[in-house]
Amino acid sequence: MNTASLAHRHFRFSLKNTLPAVLGLLLCGGILVQSQLPMLERINLGELENAEARKDRNIALANVLGWLGYRNLAASWLWLELIQYYGDGPGRTLTGYGLAYDYFDHMTRLDPNFFLGYRLSSLVLAYRAGQPEQAIEILDRGIQQFTPETNPGAWRLYVDRALLNFLFLGDAQAGRDDYYRAAAWREQVGLPGDDFRQLGDNIARSPLSRRARFDVWMSVFNSTTDRDTRIFVLEQLAQLGTVLRTLPTGEIEIQAPPLPDFPDEEPYLLRL
Length: 272
Description:
Blueprint: H1 15-42, H2 47-67, H3 71-87, H4 89-95, H5 100-110, H6 115-128, H7 132-145, H8 155-168, H9 172-188, H10 194-205, H11 210-223, H12 227-239, E1 243-246, E2 252-255, E3 268-270
Antiparallel strand pairs: 1-2, 2-3
Helix pairs in contact: 1-2, 2-3, 3-5, 5-6, 5-7, 6-7, 6-8, 7-8, 8-9, 8-11, 9-10, 10-11, 11-12
């Protein structure tokens, strides 16, 4: 997919002089879209196709805001657009996720410190759009941007990448390496890391086993607090044949595939 690269020039304008121009640009854009609607209807384009075109123009307009110096504002605008785009289930069923990569690409270039944007890239690009390579590209930017010193949760990016390498790209060794890096970054912020190293070793030994896949999905569940991601993980666990049961307490009981050495393993108790 071709995407426009962002300019690296920096401009200096006073807020007093620039803000009216930006607002005027937004107003003109809105008037232009409204004036074109009758023509689009005459061409007999469907409403969904019109919406896709408008979103594509909004991405370009956000880049204009970035060039004017409002990079964080533009990234936040794209974030809100992305949430709306992702949440439109019927629309995505009909038109797919063709703009998803563009949203993440431009958003993270406009604001390289947008940590939540990197985290959501796996859910949208890999799980929904079927683009794990593009998701890894976005995650790699985050891994280059953050360290345990600048963000104590940066280790989660390696957990996300481990899942993509293991389950989507079939590269168990790369997944193992990612879990080892996640463990090292966790230890730098005072968290235990041996469990992730053990998980990496287990999936490298038996990458096709149902238990290995269960453990990887569980690591994703435990590494995020995003409700949509956790619901998706539960869907994947159910597809593995895992028994799920909601308790009166609201907790979800999951019986994992048995381990050879621990056939009577206690079930996991999770909460969304």
